[in-house]
Structures are given as structure tokens and as C-alpha cells.
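The instructor's notes for this session suggest beginning with a concrete chain rather than abstract definitions. Hand out the sequence below and ask the class to guess, before any prediction is shown, which regions might be ordered.
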Amino acid sequence: MKPKTIIEPFKIKSVEPIRFTTREEREVLLKEAGYNPFLLPADDVLIDLLTDSGTSAMSAKQWAGIMEGDESYAGSKSFYRFEAVIKSITNLKYIIPTHQGRAAEKILFSIVGGPGKYFPNNTHFDTTRANVEFSGAEAVDLLNEIGKHPEIRADFKGNMDVEKLETFIKEKGVENIPLCMITVTNNSGGGQPVSMQNIKDVKAVCNKYGIPLFLDACRFAENAYFIKMREKGYENKTPLEIAQEMFSYADGVTMSAKKDALVNIGGFLAMNDDELAMKCRNLLIVTEGFPTYGGLAGRDLEAVAQGLLEIVDEHYLQYRIRSVEYLGERLVAAGVPIIEPPGGHAIYIDAKRFLPNIPADQYPGQSIVCELYLEGGVRAVEIGSVMFGKKDKNGKLIPSMMELVRMAIPRRVYTQSHIDYLIEVIIEVYKNRDRLKGYQFTYEAPMLRHFTARFKPII
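After discussion, reveal the predicted structure:
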């Protein structure tokens, strides 16, 4: 018999309690947090879907690795295991540990960025864009057209528009484009995968103009599994084999290990370029630590190495992708507008269709985020004009391309009953959507404003 139910490919060995709150309590808490769920104490959150970054439940072998961590300042055996595992997956020459992905981005773009430089990507995520722009360079998104339409179903909506890439290179000049990047999966575009053919095609354009190709590989294993499921010729390959081919087209990689390496902290920068690696290591020593620990303890290096071995397990990936798909199917059946098909790590509510009466400059995504918390203690994040909106010279909002609410599912943390509860909360908010109001800023930082912003409802 082939079972129809896909079960969790693990047993639960340790649990932590959840604190329940009332709606009345949450109304006070949210107001005190400036209507920004980032500023809520985690203990006041029932289901926390703010991010899947650093929120995974680690395995018994990862915890065992933590006990085995070698805390030598230089040349620890934990680093050499970390390095060996990453090389076995990426086949890249230089492996540089960092405390998380944005540290890798900071080092990389501090060296290759600067005024007058441009960095094309399928879609930059927030910290990537911030680190590019902090250097004085410009981050440019070249997402394929179908990826801009949440309601249209397609297999690889995370793909880069290859024709636009070549046109962009000709317009800006090869000398002004230090590297091209592809984010897998495409987080800001709805957690949508990138096809192997698209990676190949982008690589061909980069080769034609002598531009290095880097992958933002936070969710490389989930992307590999989508390729196995959806791209002809890969159905009989393992996720590891597919990932290895993905990395074979890359000249370098940045990765937050807090996603697909199943750890609470960690990341790395990897590349083949000798001179660039030397510059990155020199900056690493100034900002992060010695090149064989890079801001991490030896125990963290062990946990990352073990997590990278576990993430390419096909049973795990089948469970992971299907769990998110289940959530998406239930919401679509209830009429809730989401990015379709569901992505790998999250469900993205399409706030434009959910709240067509609230304009972009009143931040419909933020309205949904607040109501999810009030209704059921669920913490999500706006990915729209709060996160990515800009202002013109007159201070008027230039809206984000899409107005989304991301509900990122932590790995190996919540069970199906948690997800069923979440579905009930979302549907209830959708039924009462006509009661929702827009929001306005009362405080915003000059960069990455969504982390610390404060709001008030528009009465």
C-alpha cells in the first residue's frame, strides 16, 4: 500500500509551551508595539510566522554536534567539517563563515559595490537590497513577467527575465555590473522557485559579458525539490544532485544558514575568485572574526554542517513542500487570495485583492498583519510598500510592485493542528475584511524601516 497521508519524517523529543492570550490583551500589546508585530515580545505570540530564518527546530544529531564543537580560535576541526560539507554541495573553492547571511552580503557588497555600480537580481530581498544600497550601488530586480501576477499559476515564477538582463547589461555597461545574482527560492516574489534552465540561461548571458554569477542560496534545497517535481529531466535525480548542478553554474554564493541549514544562527560566503576571496577574508577579520570561525562558535559550525546534510533528505523536502501546499489549498478553497501556486517556505496573501479598498499609501498588508494578530495571536510580516516602498523627491510614496503578507513556516516546529488553527484565523479575518482600516507611519528609520517602524490606524 502506498500511503496517501504525508507524515512528519521525524519524532518530537522536546517541546516548549505556548502562552495563550485574549483578544483584549492583544489589542493592548499591539498598540504598545506601535502596530508593528516585529516589536511584540515573542512570548505574546501564539503562532509565530514572522520568519523561517533561525526559527527551525534542530535535530538530535545537530544538538550532539553542538556538544562536539571545537572552540579553538583558529583551525578548529568544526570549521574543517563545515568547509567539507559546503564544498561537497557547492564545489566552490573558498568557504568563508559568517554569523548570518546579511554579514556575507555586507562583506561582499562592501568590496564589489559602490556608487555607479548596479546589481541585477530576479528579486532582491530586504537585507540584500539594503547592503547593495548602503554601498552606494543600485539593486535592480528583473523578475520575469508571470512572477508579477499572484493569481496566475506557473511552475517557475521566480525566474529572472533573461532578455531584460541582457538589455540591462548593454544599457549600464559591463564595467558597472560587478556581478549578477539569482535568489533561490525567490523570497520577495512569493517563495517561488527558479528553474535549472533559467539558471543556465542567466549563466550563459553572464559568461557572454564576463560577469560573475552569484546565488543567494538561503533556500537552495527547497528550490532543488521544486526542480525535481516540475522540470523535465530531473524527476529521477536526488535533491542533492540537483543542488550540485545548480551550484555548478555559480561563481559564488551567499547563504543565510538560518533557513535551509536548519540552524538558529550562521551563514557563509563562498566563491572561486582568488583575489576576491582574499579581500573578503581580510574584511571578515575586521568585522566578524578569524577566517575559520567568522563570528560563529565551533558548535554553530557543527550544527550548520549537520543541517546541510539533513536538508537534502527527500522525505523531509516532500513533507516540507506538501505542508505549505496544504495550507495554500485550504485558503484558496475559502476564497482567500494568495500567490499561486504556494511557494516553498511560506504562504503569501495578496493584500491588493484581499483589501482592494485600502490604497498602497495606507499599507493594506500592514492592516492584514495587525488583524491576524488581533484575531488569533498569529504573527506574520508585510512584504509590500512598508518593506519596499520608496519616496520620490516630493516625499510621495512609490509603491512596491506587489502588496503581500508573508506567513513563513518555521521548519520542524508546528504540527498540522497548528496549521489548521492558522487556517481558521485567516479565513475569519477574510470574512470580516470590510472592517479593516489602513495605517500610517508615526516613525520610520531611513533603511530597513519595517524592522523598527511604528504606526497608527487611520480612523
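Then share the key points. The longest helix spans residues 314-333. The longest strand covers residues 94-98.
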